[in-house]
Structure formats: structure tokens, C-alpha cells
Amino acid sequence: MDRPPVEKLPTRGSLIKGYLLLVYTAVAFAAVLILANAIISNHNVRWDLTPNQRYSLSDFDKRVLGGLSHPVKVMAFVRTEDPAYLELAELLFQAAAFTPQLQYEVVDVNKAPGLARQFGVSSYGEVVVESQGRRRDFDNARSELLIPAILQVSSNESKHIYLTVGHGERDLFSADRNSGFSQFRGLLEQNNYQIDNVSLFAGGVPDDARVLVSVGPEKDFLPEELAELAKYLARGGKYLVMLDPYGSPSLAKFLREYHLDFTDQVVVDPAYRLTQGEILTTRIPLHSENSPITRSMSADAVMSLVRGITLSGEPGAAGPDGLQLVSTEALLRSSHESWASGDPKALTTGITEYQSSRDTKGPITVGAEVALAPATNLHIPQQQMTRIVGFGSSAFASNQFIEMLGNRDLAVSAINSLAGDDVLIASRERLNRGETAGFFVTAGQSHLLRDLGAGLETIILFAIATLVFVRRRFFV
Predict the structure, then answer these.
(1) How is 271-336 classified by DSSP, letter by letter?
(2) β-strand pairing of 72-78 with 126-131
(3) Phi, psi of 382 (to 5 degrees)
């Protein structure tokens, strides 16, 4: 009868070797963890998967923070259980990591009421931004207000934007949801611009004007007003004009002398109209890559009731008051399927068809810039030149449209460029929360999705039927 095998007990040497192996493994594992932690700490990698990169610094944020030359202190008085606190704290953390000029402190008001009183804070969610003796406060601890507040306290330069009045211009102080332009004004103020109205009839354009703006004038300018406007442009003025179809014929005629010709045609683009929308409100798909105004846009512009623009001169062409055309640039153009309609009923009915004898085939320029200089000194820096930026519609900057796609970038960047604030020209995509900027489908894209869906369904059903037939015919 066979005896069962006798198990050998581990020797003392093998036990010691096992313990040493265990210790070695534990030490090696701890070393790997320490090394990984050190690498992660020194090379912080983060992924923001939210729409519009909500928890990431935008290009605009980085430009403002990168331009700080003096320390900035931010005090955020919040309730730590407030959901808005997390977004603000994340932005403060990233901003402080981006530049050493920013220091911040998040204070729980419930735990430090004395410190809140010291800063004059009486409500939850208030943020105090200080630099060089200047202070800006804002409520509700909203992250989209932080970077503009930093910009305001870090700059000691006064920048004036003047709006022409008296010709039915749009009201930048109106908060009306559809016809108001208060959001556009708010964005300019966040960029540290002071907004004031000016009457050209009562003394012309002030000397401290960075940019003169006309938003949707309807009535004619008086000859005396156009003379004052010409004086301003002759001394190197910067002019932004948004001229709606058939608006202010005298101003349109005046601008023609500067080789910026606003036509009496309205742009129609059935291919790029929004889904279920009328043909006079469209996306503008073609942007210039030569201009910082359009190069910074995060998406297409959306324009409604827009007139065409023609650049009527070549560089070297003569302009008024001894000026000479230096350059022209078509900033925005409609699609190749569009046309400019001369049918005046199109504005009221929203219905028109292309007629070769009356209309102009696209692409149609709807945003353009001209630069002029004295004929005796054509090589002056661009900021000393006369510059005019024109758009064939004002609606894109209204409260109704400014949050759509790239409209915010377009409207503000046009002012930044004319004012010489090129450092501020950048995408502000993070500021859009996605309610109105997240998803736009043109009519053409909608039809493609519909046809693609129907076609794929047919192909899939046919493939399944084929597989079933082959299996039963040859394998059963």
C-alpha cells in the first residue's frame, strides 16, 4: 500500500526570501505611487468634457491673464454648499495656475462673517477683485464675470466708445429681449470701454473717441452731420457701422466715397437658413482668415435681414479729404447657394425667388473693412489709419441674436480691433453656456440627416434580410 507523499515544510531560508520579496514588492509599489504622484503634481493633465469647455480657460481668459503686469487679489465670499461655488473655485484655481500675478481666497461667509464685514460684503456670492487701488465687486459668484472684472481693475486706461444718435439707431441701453442691445453694451463695458451717446450735429466726434459706432440708423444724416463724420475720419478715425437693408440712404451714399458700398438688396440663403426658419435668417459660413475680427470666431455668425456690401475700389484708389485706399477685406460672405435679392417685398413677406435680371448670385459680402491713409503718407501704422468696418445688419448684435454661435465674438472683436485692443481679440466660447449657442442645424443639414436616416434604415433592413436568407439557404 502506497504511502501518501510527505509535504516538505518551508525552510528558514525560503521564509526569509519570501518576506524579503514581499517587502521589496511593497517598497516598489510605494515608490511607483510616489513617483506617479510627483509626475501628476508637476504635469497636471485635465480633461474638460463639458459643452463649450465650461471648466476651462477660454482664449480670451488666457489673453487677459497673460497680460497682467500687476498683482490681482480676488476674494470670493460664498457658501461652500452652493453649486455655483464649485464652478467659480475651479476657474480661480486654473487662473492662479496660469499666472503668478493672481492670488485668490475663497471665504465661507458663515464661518468668517467678520472678514465679510471688513470688505463690506453683506450677501452670499459676492466677489471682490482688487489691483492697484482699484476694486470691482460683482454678485452671484458667476465665473463669466470674473475675467472682465480682472481686466477692469488691471487697466488704468480710459477708453471711450461713442454711439451716434438721432437717426433711429438701436438702443444699447434697452433690455428688451428682441429689440434691445443691452447685452452688447454689457460686453463692451466688461472689456473696460465707456459707452456714451454723441450728437454729430452738436459738435462732432470728441477727440477721445476710440471708436464711433452707428447701430442700425434708419433716417438720413444731415449734411452738417456727414461733414463732422468726414472730419473725424480724415484724422484717422475708426468707425463701426451696422446698416440694415434700406436704412439711412444718405449714410450709405456717404460711405460709398470710402469704397464701402451698401447695396439695396437683401441676402437670401435657403441652404443655410436655420431649420424650420425663414430664408432671411441664415448662418454666414464664409469667413476671412486674414482679419483677426473673423479669425477669432468660435462658430459661424447668424444674421437676419442682412443687406449686401460691395467693395468698390482697389488699393490706391482716391478717397475723400486727401485719403487714399490702402486695403479692403471681405470679412463675411454668404454661401455659394445664396443670392442678393432686389425684391423689396422680401423683407415683409420673407418669400422671394431668384431672378437673374434683378438679383445677384452669391457668395455675397455682408461684412467688410476698408483702411485709408493720407495720400502723402501711405506707410503709417495701421492704428493711425482711417478704418471703417461695416456689417449689412444690426440684428446679430441684439439681445435676441448675440448669444447665437459666433455673434458674440464677432460683435466684440470688431470693437477690439478698431480700438487697437488686439490682445483682447480671442474666442469667448466658454462664456456661452450652451442654451442658445449649442446646436444649430441649417435646412440643408436637416434634409441630409433626414435622407441619411431613411437610407441607413433601408440598408440595415436589407442587410438583415440578406443574412437571414443566406443562413437559412446554406447553413440550415
Answers:
(1) GGBBTT--TTEEEE-EE-SS-HHHHT-SS-EEEES-EEEEE---TT-B-GGGEEEEEEEEEEE--T
(2) antiparallel
(3) -60, -35
Q: Which residues contact 388 (CB under 8 A, 6 or more apart)?
A: 233, 238, 239, 240, 241, 255, 258, 260, 369, 370
pLDDT at 84 over 90: no
To the nearest 10°, report the CA torsion of 192, 198, 204, 208.
Answer: -10
The DSSP symbol for 62 reads H
Cell 454668404 sits on residue: 334
Question: In this structure, which amino acid lies at residue 160?
Answer: H
Enter the pTM of the model: 0.77
Return d(Cα 250, Cα 239) in angstroms, integer. 16
Rank 81-85, 89-93, 106-110, 188-192 by mean pLDDT and report only the highest: 188-192
pLDDT in tens, 365-419: 999 999 999 999 988 998 899 999 999 999 999 999 999 989 999 999 999 999 9
Which residues, at least 6 apart from 306, have a Cβ–Cβ distance to it below 8 Å? 245, 266, 267, 280, 282, 284, 366, 391, 392, 393, 395
Q: Which residue has the cell 465679510?
A: 116
Encode pLDDT of 172-213 as tens digits.
999 999 889 999 999 999 888 999 999 999 889 999 999 999
CB distance 247 to 314 below 8 Å: no
Topology at the third CATH level for domain 51-152: Glutaredoxin (3.40.30)
CA–CA separation, 67 vs 425, rounded Å?
A: 13
CATH number, domain 158-431: 3.40.50.880
**Best CA proximity match to 253, nearest among 312, 332, 170:** 312
3-state secondary structure 175-208: CCCCCCCHHHHHHHHHCCEEEEEECHHHCCCCCC
Contact call for residues 320 and 230 (beta carbons, < 8 A): yes
CB 92 within 8 A of CB 74: yes
Predicted pLDDT at 1: 52
Q: Which residues contact 415 (CB under 8 A, 6 or more apart)?
A: 161, 188, 191, 193, 211, 213, 240
The alpha carbon of residue 315 and the mean position of all alpha carbons in its chain are separated, in whole angstroms, by 30
